[in-house]
Amino acid sequence: MKTLFVGQNRIHLQSVDSTNSYATEMLRQISLPDGTLFYTFEQQNGRGQRGNSWESEPIKNVALSYVLYPKFIAADKQFMLTKVIALAVADLLTAIFKKQGVLADVKIKWPNDIYVNNQKIAGILIENTIRDSFIQSSIVGIGININQTLFKNNLQATSLKLICGKEFDLEEIIIHLSEYIEANYLQLKANKQNLINNNYLNCFYKLNETATYKVDNEIIEAKIVGVSELGLLQLKLADDTIREFDFKKIEFI
Description:
alpha+beta
């Protein structure tokens, strides 16, 4: 693995309810090296945003969690970590499709999903511990659909195998993901926020496109124009006003 620290301490779990939950519990008990990786090919109760579960067929996909200590990130800038992790996953998938000679549209769907050709292929769940207005530790959970071809609970899901028509080595995917995570994370540590923000918006799902959303049980049409520093989705409404929404207050239709 060509990394300085991300994924260098790698712990394979045969089966686990949730890699994020497992990593959180381990971090409570012992001191873990920066970049420690917990991963499994059989996650039984993966967690997502809004209390959703992550469907994953055993031995077909990767579910993993990294332990990071981004103490240089202020609490009010923590969405920057979400951006670099999402970019890392998008970079990984883009590189895979390029190598396979497959044309695919990789996008980051706010706040933390990765879509390919309008279908979900990966999800991210980051849980931060804050102290003295800075992040002390982060559990970065990622699930990627690799070789699964049937999805019972999410008809809009896809996988690398469905898109590329071949199976992939799960261990190799983890190695390359760790490399992309470290590369993007180090950009953040080097304070290259403008570069990160530009890359993020260039990869953003439905940016500047009119689409339908559900807000407070009301269906509206609006256009995504950006994301605030706090990670709020910025929508331009029909009357040209711009409003910001937390992920709990708005849904894509």
